[in-house]
Design brief:
heterodimer, A: 876 residues, alpha+beta, Immunoglobulin-like, five-stranded antiparallel sheet, three-stranded antiparallel sheet, 37 helices, 10 strands, B: 143 residues, two-stranded antiparallel ribbon, 5 helices, globular
Amino acid sequence: MNEFQNHNNFMDMIRAIRACKTAAEERAVVRKECASIRAAISENDQDYRHRNLAKLMFIHMLGYPTHFGQMECLKLIASPGFPEKRIGYLGLMLLLDERQEVLMLVTNSIKQDLNHTNQYIVGLALCALGNICSAEMARDLAPEVERLLQFRDPNVRKKAALCTIRIIKKVPDLAENFINPAAALLKEKHHGVLLTGVQLCTDMCKVSTEALEYFRQKCIDGLVKVLKDLANSPYAPEYDVSGIADPFLHIRLLRLLRMLGQGDAEASDTMNDILAQVATKTESNKNAGNAILYECVATIMSIEENGGLRVLAVNILGRFLSSRDNNIRYVALNMLMKAISLDSQAVQRHRATILECVKDSDASIRKRALELVYLLVNESNVKSLTKELVDYLEISDPEFKGDLTAKICSIVEKFSPEKIWYIDQMLKVLSEAGNNVKDEVWHALIVVITNASNLHGYTVRLLYKYVQAAGEQETLIRVAVWCIGEYGEMLVANAGVLDIEDPMTITEADAVDVVETAIKRHSLDLTTRAMCLIALLKLSSRFPSCSKRINDIILHHKGSFVLELQQRAIEFNSIIEKHEKIRSALVERMPVLDEATFSGRRAGSIPAAVSTSHGAAPKVPNGVVKPASAPLVDLLDLSSDDTPAPSSSGGDFLQDLLGVDLSPASSQGTNQAQKSGTDVLLDLLSIGTPPAQSSSSTLDMLSPSQGNKKSVDMLNDLASPSAPSAQAFSPAKNSPMMDLLDGFGPSPPAPETNGSTYPSVVAFESTSLKITFSFSKDPGNPQTTSIEAQFANKSPNIYSNFVFQSAVPKFLQLHLDPASSNTLPASGTGSITQKLRVSNSQHGKKSLVMRIRISYKVNEKDVLEEGQINNFPRGL
Amino acid sequence: MGIRFVLMVNKQGQTRLAQYYEYLNLEERRALEGEIVRKCLARNEHQCSFVEHRNYKVVYRRYASLFFLVGVDNEENELAILEFIHLLVETMDRHFGNVCELDIMFHLEKAHFMLEEMVMNGCIVETSKSSILSPIQLMEKAS
């Protein structure tokens, strides 16, 4: 029963499906067909098996489940006739994959077919094996395939070669067996076998270095000869594509040569001539020729240094770049990204063309060109390039704007020659595409602004101008509102006017207008409006004449449904009305935010801003610049990899150990105590101590990065790795916030060697309590440390209900065993011991830290002591 | 590893032939096909034939009412894949004689056989039209 004649039913089914107008109809037809197929299968109907399988394939392609047909495939494969086998194997490859256990049943059939007399059947079996075999099947049948690599029929040989590829990918250990047969394949004449043989060698080199060495020694000359013959061969109708003989083989050979020449100067030398010949003689008016040239250029770029060839390659790329065919341009841009690491001068010459490509109408080309431009930026051309990019930003597509904005911001940050230019560009970007600008970027902008004290007046006036024009850009409004709040009086008094500015008169009322418009706008979100409220508070102090008007605006928000706004409004209102005396102190000018610490923190917390699409690209000139303070970030373990934990109230500090509090915290007033409590907890572990004046906690999102001169010195101390972190922090203990937590303060480590690998330490000591930790490690498990904690009572009173709690940051895991007792006798006459187990997932990179809380009852009074332990020995 | 999948899709987005060289279950396939086809159909004539999708590339070309899409790894030579698509079309053309979408639909298994002779496990096996078509012609003669 042959399959090709009796297709009426199959075609009918297809026609029926085509005729369906809706998805529901189609589902009904398919269901009916599936039902009849299932019935036929269970009846073991011999006649229509192949037809049913053909139908199943079609249904599978449409996306319906067809697993009931899998056994049918197996039966068809096992039947003797060729058409049945054919469709059985096809079904096998389409309906099954290597994860199914059913596949194991096929192994025997395939083995028999591999030994069949009919070469086409052997070919079928090899094909199936090569597409979906699993590791066990590969091991079983590898000897058969090896034998078939030398079969008389070239078609079988070529399929055996590709089958081998899959085998060595699944079972790399077997690669050694195949090295010799593979090398023999390279001497073939038949193009098909040659093609697959070359592919086999390429993949082998990827899998096994032994193979790579072998091919390098023995086969390069042979390969070069083959390529030469191919390039010089006369017209061969069989393999000819638009005038070139077998471009696919050309490309494969070039790829193998690339693999062999990479990293080996001698090998690269032997290839130079042929590469030059291919690069110069190949015709580039047809796609086939261009494909070969592309591969040739890629090979030249990867192998060892040869000036002449490189120049040739870059010239070809230049030619591609000015071609009218979009495909060719795309390919050229791709290649140039790799070329830039080798010879950036040559690529710079094409800068203008590349800039044109950024504005191209084709999205793929735009993307590539933008990435390339990013790599090309250096100090000398940054201004002109940025100007072009910013100009283009105005007319670019919305989808592209995001990418473009991100890249412009990166470029501006890395290469800005002077602050005023930086501010100019950033403000332009904000007004064009503010909504695409990420938070870190405008935070950085504010840091820069505060540092440029001579530009404060200029900046705030510029912002005022932009806000009038582009009021919908949220980020712009945020920056503007913040600046107007801070530097409002400079705006009105026209302080610090630079020569380039036009004269402007702005009254206090105008400034308040801007903030009022912003706060009233419904499209702006909570953060912006909260910032507006604070700005209003600042302005009420700086512009006493507008104080009444500002108070009215704030009053309006007292009834806001949003808790944050309501709270702020109420508090600010009470400050304005009842606390006139402290108001000006509260809203004094912010301290200058330290740029070095901020960029250090950013470099630690944010993954590389620069990313090229070729992940493993070689040294890229504009790679991420890790500022010198980056190592300090790691030491102090800002949990930068995790998303910042939401802001914690004072009670949650045990959980929120190292979370950097980035959400806008509420302002002064009732929350002052709690907030400064969390500040201390955070700041002790982040860069810098909280500043001595309590007034400057307003800029909440930047609170962790607040530092002052002291902090920078502290950081320098910390840079010496020998000093344990606790010691360096002792100057911090004098900070005024400390009194909020009694008994605070880790003491300097007092190591007592007790013979174990790690000295035990006094983890915590206060006037009433002393805790000692001694450590031991299981030699087989270096990440886990067992700690025995010993509690000693220093006071003359007995402590009862003694409870010890501890919390650790996210990279540690803690397990507490029950304590030996919960009564602690007085004056050190007895002690409580408790065992802890800590597992460090960052063993070797980060050392242990722990927060502890001890509660006990003494003289009918409950006492709570809290502390932090930083003096764990290193290496735990 | 080289070629990840070969799809033939018509202008309405219906898949006419799908061959995958890596494992994807049914929902993934449908999702993939939907996404990619939408991207390719949205592009016009003058744009280049390469689309970047997730972590690989899709090379496509339109022949009459049918789109040929080939998903490849990032390291693959895109221009060569364009040539391969053309070779595929020419091979089918030689066999069916002026191949059109309906030919592929009604003779799906033959189209699969042809593709199988050309690509195995994601690698191009044979590029000579006669070598590709000879087993298929033999089969037809035998029946």
